[in-house]
Structure formats: structure tokens, C-alpha cells
Design a protein that fits this description.
29% helix, binds molybdenum atom, 23 helices, 666 residues, alpha/beta, binds iron/sulfur cluster, six-stranded mixed beta sheet, binds ligand MGD, single chain, 27 strands
Length: 666
């Protein structure tokens, strides 16, 4: 009999869409949008729909696998897998201590129970774990310095703005459910400004599109701030009552040479003046910050400079304003402390996510003897594939938990097959955008012998006699929801209704009490200074401006058709489009369809030229996520250095050159 279920998209995406899933006799029939979801309102993207193809793909791993040679695996039983892995863990802990075991993970699923992998290692007595982020680390830290937290307005508040700035967020690709709200606001006469090196689809809808040189947004924000102050357009009352460090910021602004910045960032002074005037004539202004623009050496400073612009114009804590970057209070609503029990992991060492390969290779007190990789396709998604491969291959025993033989799984010693979203129960949430959470029931039986991540960790714990892993799923979810009970959200009603709106503020900072040490918005952050950074946002540059060897900036944006590497499993292998500006096309005598190589010291990749009119002149854009075997894996070219703050990545702070090897003769 056909049945319909409410659930959610588990993919690591802004939108965490509401799904209606139809099943019939333990078979998935279709995945559709749920009109009952207040933000996603019945629409979902192709990646969500394609979860079905992933689930039924014949390449799904159905049984535990043990590697017996280069690329060769044999099926083993779960008993054998659990026994051998536990024995190795115990022997390593005895000889070297628990920090000789690395737990490297990312956030591939929005399921709450997925965090229990950390509980496992804490009950084990510790581990080496990864901190920081490939994704948004620098910007999060920046907002913590300025505001004490990174919070977004309820998306409907966009209608109260008079200007919307989409600053480096590729809305139509990465956050498609923001688009209808922008369109509605536009109909009401709200002005849309887009600042991005790429003339993307949201830029094409804008009233004003500003093409900026990559990594230079902070300098633009400071230049606009200076113009605003020179014209006396700043919000003196907000500054006086709610901020600290304005005079120090003023000193930095006074030293700025607007003409020089204009040349460096490739934006005319008149455009900067027009932008500045918007903050006077068309307030309140709200900004949707993307994550791409902080994946540079100076990424944190960039976000601090933009925060400062919004602080000095009083666009923080007001309806229609806001510096929308992340929405961390979503994740902070749950009782993760009790779920994860970090207090129990007595011996802990940390590696930084982006640079973990270097740290694995350098570690000797103790060395890394074993690694667990879960919720991540690290080989493809970490910067510098060559370094990642070298580091992982240097580890005696590597265990990967995944549903597919990814290029990370292929070099593992044990590959453990896990269940997919509809084969297990969980609660789904995301800290990037909205505060609607959903319960996802188990809808179908897992294929073969796939086990949920939780069952894998619980079985390992049982084998090693670690207590703390005997609770039921309901008990774990109950613990997570405890802080929400007083707001009427508990597991029973979440299961009954299917979704709940978290009690987070629609307008963050409305009462002007900030989570900083001073309780105010901090233009000047003593914490930043104590961390060895500039206490205020300053003129700063990405690493690539110093690179004289390779002339072009390479930005490797998130793919339209895939959630990172995940959907490339299904897509037919094709060469990536390499999007270039008109100027590059002219200089290198390239036209659409030509086959080219882009390269730097680290490697090269092939692709097909696509010219995008309006793109920043020296910038090349390729989508990330392609697998190494299909030839377009962009992290062959990226660097694993760290950004200025928050242990963020510098994935976009990358330079390359171009070689043509085949002309398009059409
Ligand atoms: N389809 C799809 N959607 C996704 C994902 C996916 O893989 N596929 N991934 C999800 C995840 S994990 C994340 S983190 C988000 C990321 O969401 P976004 O931040 O929107 O996406 P990115 O591709 O990281 O960044 C892309 C935008 O930043 C611009 N950009 C790059 N450098 C600069 C710069 O220096 N200045 C400015 N102003 N702009 C710059 C690019 O041109 C592009 O428009 O998307 C989520 N949504
Ligand atoms: N060059 C470049 N590189 C980038 C980026 C970029 O913009 N440019 N973006 C970065 C960003 S923002 C991010 S967030 C990272 C993402 O990096 P990853 O999270 O490593 O990327 P995915 O390709 O989504 O890989 C997730 C893997 O987890 C598996 N998986 C899915 N669900 C589960 C589950 O429930 N349990 C387990 N055990 N496994 C599961 C999937 O099958 C898949 O193989 O990539 C980063 N890398
Ligand atoms: S990938 Fe994002 S937009 Fe697509 S269905 Fe999932 S949550 Fe929605
Ligand atoms: Mo991300």
C-alpha cells in the first residue's frame, strides 16, 4: 500500500527542505516538496530528488569490506569487522594512548544522531579530532569577535528592508529558497545589490551588480565606511550607545586611500559612492553573506569589515537590517553537551580540518596509527589532494564509514556500509539559514547489511565494554531536545506534527545586548587582539595578490547539480566547464567549447571553456565536487593553508594559468 511521510532533506545545504516521501511495500516511490514547510514551501531541488537514485544505485556498498590489495576488497562479516577494528583500537590505546587514533569527520548529514560519533570517542577516553572548517570557519570567528555569535534574521524580515545586498552568496544554486523571498521583496520595490566576482544568476536579477576582485571585499567595505563617515551619514546614536572601539576604527579609516583601493579592487570610486549613499537613502539595508568570500587568507578580516559597515550604519538589531551569515542558535538549541560528553574524552589532541594532512604527517607524540573517516569524502573535498592522499596512505589502519566506494573509501583498510536518510530515524536541522526542524522516521529497510552510523559506534562500544552506548534512539533524541521542552517541543509532539519552529529570535540583537565580552558590538575586539590578530578590521589582502607566477584567480564554487561530491556518483562523467571572463578569452584567444588545461605547481585539470560576460576580468570559475577519476577534481590545485581566524580554509585563495590544447571547430 502506498504511504506518504513527512521528513526532511539530510544534505548539508542552507535550506533543509521539508520532504513528502511516498513509499510502497518497503520501496521508495518518490521524493517531493512538502507545502507545509514555512520556508521551503513545497519546492525541492534536483539533488533532493536524486537521493532516490543514490539509495538504489547498484554501487551502494551492502556489506563490510576489507582491503586486501591496491583497490581490492573482500566482503567480511560485521562480527569480523567489529572484532578486528576494536582489537586494533585497544592495542593502539594501550601502546600509544587514544590520541594515536584520528577521528576526521565533516557535516555530510543534517541528522542530529550523527554527532554521536564524538560520544563514542569520548567514552573511548579521547582521540585526535579535527577542529576548524573547510566551509565557514573564518567568518564564524569574525562574527564571534564582533557580535559574540553568528545569527540570521527570520527570512520573512527581508520584506522590511529597503535594500538587500547579496554579498558573495550564490543564491540560486546554493540557497534556492531565499530566492522567492528576494523576488517578493523586489516586487515591493526593495532594491537588490549583488557583489560577487561572478555574474551569477542572482546578479542577473540585481538592480546593481558589482563585480569585485576576489578576496577584496573587506577593503571595499572599509572604503564605503570611510565615504559614509566623511559624509556624516553614520548612525551616531547606535555607535554611541551600542558599540565599542569606534575611535580605533576611525583611525584605520582615516588612513585609507580610496583611489588606491578603487584600483586594487577594480571598482570605480563613483560606484563606491553610490553604494555608500544607499546606506543613507535606502535604509534599512540587510546583507546575505556567502561563505565563498571568506575562504581566503584574509577571510575573517573581510567579514569583520562588512560587520563594521553594518554596525556603523546602525543596521544591526533592527527589522529589515542584519548581517546574515550563519544561524548558529539552531544547533545551539540542542543539548549536545550531554549527548557528546566531551568531558569524558580525557586525552584529546586537535588537528585543523583544512591542514590535517600536514599534521598527520608531522605527528609523532604519538604518531597517527589509525584513522576513522565518516560523514566526509575527505580525499576529494579537502584542499590539496596530493597531500591528503600521502597523509592517509601513511596511516596503518584507515576505517571509512560511507554508503559508497568513494575515493576516500578506496584507500581505506575497512569500509563500513551505512544507512541512508530514509532507512533510519533522526531529527534534521541546519545552522545556516532557518530554524525549522523536522523528525525523519524510518521509512524503508536498509539494503544488504548496511548499518546506521549509530549502530556501528554502539557495536564497537559494546565490543570494547565502553558504557554509555546502551540508550535507545528515543532516549538520545529526548536528551537532545531537553532544553526545548519548556517551549513545548518534545519528541512526542515532534513525531506527531513532523516539524517544529525553534524558539530563536526573528530579529537577532534587537535588544542590543551582544554576546561579546563588553556586551556591545565590538569594532575593537580585545579577544581578537589576545588571539594575536588585529583588534579591528583593517585593509588586508588575500595571499594570491603576492603571487607573481600565475596570473589568474581560481574560484571553485559549489556545484549546481551535486551536493559537493555526492551526486557525481550518478552523473555521467564529463569534463568540467571552466568559466572565464571576456578579457581572459581575448588574451588567451579562447572561445566557447575550446578544451584547455588550467595548472599551477600542485597539478592540472582539463575542461571546456565557457565565457561569462560580466565576470571579474582575471578570475576563473570551476565547480568543485568532481571525483579524481573523472578528471575534474579541483582540489588538485588548492592549498591547505589556514585563513586568518577560525582555522578556516583558503580554498579560493588560489592562482593558476591556462594552456589551450584543443580548439572547438564547430
Ligand atoms: N547546489 C549546491 N548547494 C549547496 C552546496 C552544494 O555543494 N551544492 N553546498 C552547501 C554548503 S556546504 C555550503 S558551505 C553553501 C555555500 O554557499 P555559497 O557561499 O553561496 O557558495 P560558494 O560556492 O561557497 O560561494 C560562491 C559564491 O561566492 C562568490 N565568491 C567567491 N569569492 C568571492 C569573493 O572574494 N568575494 C565575493 N563577493 N564573492 C566571492 C562566488 O563567485 C559565488 O557566487 O552552499 C550549500 N548549498
Ligand atoms: N575546492 C573546494 N573544496 C571544497 C569546497 C569548495 O567550495 N571548493 N567547499 C568545502 C565545504 S563548504 C564543505 S562543507 C566540504 C564538504 O566536504 P564533505 O562533507 O567531505 O563533502 P561530500 O562530498 O558531501 O561528502 C560527504 C560524504 O559523506 C557520505 N555521507 C552522507 N551521509 C552520510 C551519513 O549519514 N553517514 C556517513 N558516515 N556518511 C555519509 C557521502 O556519501 C559522501 O561520500 O567541502 C569543502 N571543499
Ligand atoms: S539539497 Fe538543499 S535545496 Fe535541495 S532538496 Fe536538499 S535542502 Fe532542499
Ligand atoms: Mo560547506
Amino acid at each position: 500500500m502506498k504511504k506518504q511521510w513527512k521528513t526532511a532533506c539530510p544534505l548539508n545545504c542552507y535550506d533543509v527542505c521539508g520532504f513528502i516521501v511516498t513509499t510502497e511495500d518497503n520501496k521508495l516511490i518518490s521524493i517531493d516538496g512538502d507545502h507545509d514547510h514555512p520556508v521551503t514551501q513545497g519546492k525541492i531541488c534536483g539533488k533532493g530528488k536524486m537521493i532516490k537514485d543514490r539509495i538504489y544505485d547498484p554501487r551502494r556498498i551492502l556489506y563490510p569490506q576489507k582491503r586486501i590489495g591496491e583497490g581490492q576488497f573482500v566482503r567480511i562479516s560485521w562480527d569480523q569487522a567489529i572484532e578486528e577494528i576494536s582489537n586494533k583500537m585497544l592495542a593502539i590505546r594501550d601502546k600509544y594512548g587514544p590520541t594515536a587514533i584520528l577521528h576526521s569527520y565533516d557535516y555530510a548529514s543534517g541528522g542530529l544522531l550523527k554527532e554521536l560519533d564524538q560520544r563514542f570517542f569520548n567514552y573511548f577516553g579521547g582521540m585526535t579530532k579535527v577542529i576548524g572548517s573547510l566551509c565557514w570557519g573564518a567568518g564564524i570567528k569574525a562574527q564571534e569577535y564582533d557580535l559574540g555569535n553568528s545569527l540570521s534574521h527570520d527570512v520573512t524580515d527581508i520584506l522590511n528592508a529597503r535594500t538587500i545586498i547579496v554579498w558573495g552568496r550564490n543564491v540560486t544554486t546554493t540557497n534556492m529558497h531565499l530566492l522567492p523571498f528576494i523576488q517578493e521583496a523586489k516586487k515591493e520595490g526593495v532594491k537588490l545589490i549583488v557583489i560577487d566576482p561572478m555574474k551569477n544568476n542572482i546578479a542577473k536579477l540585481a538592480d546593481m551588480y558589482i563585480s569585485i576582485k576576489p578576496g577584496m571585499d573587506g577593503n571595499l567595505a572599509l572604503a564605503i565606511s570611510k565615504i559614509i563617515i566623511d559624509n556624516n551619514w553614520h548612525d551616531k546614536e547606535f555607535i554611541q550607545k551600542n558599540t565599542v572601539g569606534f575611535s580605533e576604527l576611525m583611525k584605520e579609516l582615516n588612513s585609507i586611500d580610496i583611489e588606491k583601493i578603487s584600483k586594487e579592487i577594480k571598482i570605480e570610486v563613483s560606484i563606491m559612492q553610490e553604494l555608500a549613499k544607499t546606506f543613507k537613502n535606502n535604509n534599512p539595508v540587510t546583507v546575505f553573506l556567502g561563505l565563498g568570500m571568506q575562504r581566503y587568507r584574509n577571510g575573517g578580516n573581510t567579514i569583520r569589515a562588512i560587520d563594521a559597515l553594518f554596525g556603523l550604519t546602525g543596521n544591526i538589531g533592527v527589522s529589515g537590517g542584519g548581517v546574515n551569515y550563519a544561524n548558529l542558535n539552531v544547533g545551539k538549541s540542542f543539548n549536545f553537551d550531554e549527548l557528546i560528553r566531551n568531558d569524558l574524552g580525557k586525552e584529546q589532541r586537535t588537528f585543523k580540518r583544512p591542514s590535517q594532512a600536514d599534521e598527520i604527517l608531522e605527528a609523532n607524540t604519538p604518531p597517527i596509527k589509525m584513522a576513522f573517516i565518516s560523514r566526509s569524502n575527505a580525499v576529494v573535498q579537502l584542499p590539496s589532494i596530493a597531500k591528503t592522499m600521502k597523509a592517509f596512505k601513511s596511516i596503518d589502519t584507515m576505517v571509512v564509514i560511507d554508503m559508497y566506494m568513494t575515493e576516500t573509501a578506496k584507500i581505506a583498510d575497512y569500509v563500513l556500509p551505512t544507512t541512508s536518510v530514509f532507512e533510519e530515524e533522526d531529527i534534521y536541522y541546519g545552522s545556516m539559514f532557518h530554524g525549522i526542524i523536522r523528525f525523519g522516521p524510518k521509512l524503508i529497510e536498509p539494503p544488504g547489511e548496511a548499518w546506521s552510523d549509530l549502530k556501528i559506534w554502539s557495536s564497537l562500544a559494546k565490543k570494547m565494554n565502553l558504557d554509555g552506548f546502551t540508550k535507545t534512539i528515543d532516549e538520545y533524541l529526548g536528551i537532545a531536545l531537553k532544553p526545548l521542552n519548556r517551549f513545548g517541543i518534545n519528541l512526542k509532539n515532534l513525531k506527531d506534527v513532523g516539524q517544529a519552529r525553534l524558539p530563536i529570535l526573528n530579529i537577532p540583537w534587537e535588544i542590543k545586548s551582544f554576546d561579546t565580552p563588553s556586551g556591545k558590538f565590538e569594532f575593537y575586539s580585545q579577544q581578537a587582539k589576545d588571539d594575536g590578530l588585529s583588534p579591528i578590521a583593517k585593509i588586508d589582502y588575500p595571499e594570491m595578490v603576492n603571487d607573481k607566477k600565475y596570473p589568474y584567480n581560481l574560484i571553485t564554487i559549489h556545484p549546481v547539480r551535486s551536493l559537493h561530491s555526492q551526486h557525481y556518483l550518478i552523473h555521467k562523467k564529463d569534463k568540467p566547464s571552466i568559466t572565464i571572463s571576456e578579457k581572459i578569452a581575448e588574451t588567451k584567444e579562447l572561445k566557447n567549447g575550446d578544451e584547455i588545461k588550467i595548472y599551477n605547481d600542485q597539478g592540472e585539470i582539463d575542461g571546456i571553456v565557457k565565457i561569462n560576460v560580466g565576470n571579474q576580468e582575471d578570475t576563473i570559475i570551476i565547480e568543485e565536487g568532481r571525483w579524481v577519476e573523472s578528471g575534474g577534481a579541483v582540489n588538485k590545485l588548492t592549498s591547505n593553508r589556514l585563513s586568518d581566524m577560525g582555522n578556516g580554509s583558503v580554498l579560493f585563495d588560489c592562482t593558476v594559468d591556462i594552456k589551450k590544447y584543443k580548439m572547438n571547430v564547430e
